[in-house]
What we know:
- The protein is about 30% helix and about 35% strand.
- The chain has about 120 residues and is α+β, with helices and mostly antiparallel strands.
- It has one domain (about 1-115): GTP cyclohydrolase I, C-terminal domain/NADPH-dependent 7-cyano-7-deazaguanine reductase, N-terminal domain (GTP Cyclohydrolase I, domain 2, 2-Layer Sandwich), CATH 3.30.1130.10.
- The chain has a four-stranded antiparallel sheet with strand order 1-2-3-4.
- Helix 3 packs antiparallel against helix 4 (about 70-85).
Amino acid sequence: xxxxxxxxxxxxxxxxxxxxxxxxxxxxxxxxxxxxxxxxxxxxxxxxxxxxxxxxxxxxxxxxxxxxxxxxxxxxxxxxxxxxxxxxxxxxxxxxxxxxxxxxxxxxxxxxxxxx
Length: 116
């Protein structure tokens, strides 16, 4: 079973430049998790057999609240925490896109993605 959350928007203070960590920006999180759902979810309609989207979003929100210089570090923290918190997750992909990067280029977003 695949669970996905697409472009969950949070305001955060991630970046190498001091201004990025002071002013902040919108960050968009996309998650794809391969989950070994049990019969209790699939047949009996019970949440205990899967992972709650709300719980996944809570982990993302908590990690977003901890500033990082590098988006690579941020997505690793999120992916690692999701797998540790929810052992039912077999693999997870975490993508983060940063809106309006202050790089002197015309780009809507920049981002990184990890799969573990």
